[in-house]
User: Fold this.
Amino acid sequence: MEGFVDTIQWIDTIQCGDSKELLGKLPDGSVDLTVTSPPYDNLRVYKGFQWDFCGIANELFRVTKPGGIVVWIVNDGTVDGSETGTSFKQALYFKDVAGFRLHDTMIWRKTNPMPQVKQPRYASCFEYMFVLSKGKPKTFNPIMRKTKCGGRKYDSTCKNMGGENGRTKKEFDINLESVQYNVWDVQVAKNKTAHPAVFPEQLAHDHIITWSNPGELVLDPFVGSGTTALEARRTGRHYIGFDISDEYCQMARDRISNDGKKKNGV
Assistant:
C-alpha cells in the first residue's frame, strides 16, 4: 500500500509523532503484540497529547497479526461523583466495532496505591488490563504458580451421571503448579523520570513473555518513558514505540541505551 514504511526501518526505535498517523504507516499484520497504557480520562497531563481512540483502535486491528494480542491497560476518571465508564466503552468498541475478541479481562491490583482523598466509596487500587486478540491467540506462555497442596493425592466422590444412584469414589493427584490468576499484584513504579506515570517494568515484562516469543515484534503506541520497549529488548523481542512528545521519546531512547550499557558493563 502506498505510503507504508517497511516495518524493519522502525524496528528497535522510538518514533516521535501522532500515534494514529504513525500506525497508518505500518504494514498490515506486522505486529505480534501491543502492550500499552494510554492516557485516559484526562487523569494526567501529557505533553502534546491528542486523542483519537476510535482511529487508533481500528489501526491496531489492522497492524496486528492474525492471532496477535493487544493488551490495553486503562481505568476510569470520576466526574461529578460517578465513574465515567470509559474503560468499558473502549473494550466494547474493540470487540464490537474494531474486530478484536475480548480474550480476557485482567486486573492490575496495585500493592502500593495512592492514598485516596475522602470519598463516599472504597479506595481504588486497580486498573483494567483488557487482553484483546485478533482471532484465536497464537501464543500463550502462562506464568505458573505453585499449588498449596501440590504432589498430594486427594480422595473425593462425584455424582453418578446418566441417572444412576449413588456416587463414585475418585482419587486425584494435585498438580505441583497451576496457571497464574488473572489478577496480578504489582507495585506502582517508583518514578525516577520526568514522566508523570512510569509503567511498572514487571507488568510489561509479564505480558510480553506471556503473549509473544523471542524475536517477535512488540509495539507501544503510547510509549512514554519506554518501559514496554525496554522490557521487549530485555526479553529478546524487537520493539517499536510511538509518542507525540519529543521529550518523552528522548527519555525512552536514553533509558533503553543506558540499560544496554549497564548490561554490557559500560
Remarks:
- The chain has two domains: 7-142+181-263, 144-179.
- Residues 43-49 have pLDDT under 50 and may be disordered.
